[in-house]
Amino acid sequence: SWAATVSERLARPTPHLLALKVLLGPTSSTCSTQQRRRGAIFSLLIDQEESPAPVMPARLPAAFSHATGDIELSGALPYGDFSFVEDNRVVLVNPVTGTLQSIEMYGPRRRFEVEPQLRVAAGANALFVTECFGSVSLLWCEEERWFEEKLLQPEVFRGCDAIRLADYAGGTLYAMDYNGFTYIRLRAPSILKQYSSIPGYTYLRDTNNHLLVSEGEVMFVGMVLAPQEPGCPKSVGGFEVYTLDVKVTRWVKVERLADDRALFVSEQSSLAVRASETPGCRANCIYFVSELDKHSYSNSIWGVYSMEEQKVLFQRPVGGSPGKYKAGRWFFPGVGASPARSGNCAKHGKKRKFQML
């Protein structure tokens, strides 16, 4: 069974890809079936052959998949859970086992009030909630209980959509705003002064830019688009990678990934592995998945970029043909009970100190 296969792989966790199926426009006769949210789980993309078939359908609980609200996939948490945002709550779903948990993130909004934004703090069972006027809360789960803490941040770091990228490692939270600024006790320079960002954009897009911590190093991975021919779809031309020198608060460009590493980057869900410990994985490579055009699901692609050869080895639509899947996220499958899951996992008032970069 797939559960047995996952249990075996957990000894050597292998990144997998979760992607949601694109829903066709509903009609009066097909509305009930087409509105159900479905997805699939794919194994590691290895070579230039056709995109592999799904290893299993994602198990999205019926009560969740038939929900009428506007549910948005945010990112993956440890232990294999994914967070979906619906109105003022987050729904945690394990796509392998189908288990589900719903958590209220904030109170009801006033009419015409800007909707709070949620970002997953990769590497931890933690979520950022940014409300209007720049009020930021951190919610994290510890011993099957959710806790909340209001964060203080510099004045320039405020805004209803300030936090774009976030990660967690070793008791420290790392956060980057949409202007590319990262914070410790002193403000680090904007990555946009070095990163060759997509032409026409003067801010970070969390779909094409990624923040992660790998073996103690804070890393920024930014996509660079290939020159676009008239009438041709967008495509990935490469990536730029930087590490943050915390002592002198500056970004240092990386030409090669150290220590047999490979990176897997996707929106709000990025991770690093040692290639020698990951079957089928190539060292010094970036495995990517992205929707290059949010208004066109035909460009939901995944592929591999070689840092050594400085070129994209291959890229293709998720699922093999354009327009089938969207919202791809890398994750480690899990079948055990998550620390974030409990029969009565409500928010509590306990405070905990976090360092914020």
Beta-strand percentage? 35-45%
Separation, N- and C-terminal Cα atoms: 43 Å
Global morphology = globular
The count of helical stretches stands at 3
Oligomer: single chain
Strand order of the largest sheet: 8-9-10-11-26
Q: Per CATH, what is the topology?
A: Neuraminidase
CATH top level is Mainly Beta
Which value, in Å, is the CA radius of gyration?
Answer: 20 Å
SS-based structural class?
mainly beta
- For the record, the CATH architecture stands as 6 Propeller
What's the average pLDDT?
Answer: 74
* Number of DSSP E strands: 27
What series of H and E elements makes up the topology?
Answer: HEHEEHEEEEEEEEEEEEEEEEEEEEEEEE
Proportion in helices: under 10%
Low-confidence stretches: 27-34, 342-357
Protein name: KIB1-4 beta-propeller domain-containing protein
InterPro entries: KIB1-4_b-propeller
Pfam families: Beta-prop_KIB1-4
Organism: Triticum aestivum (Wheat)
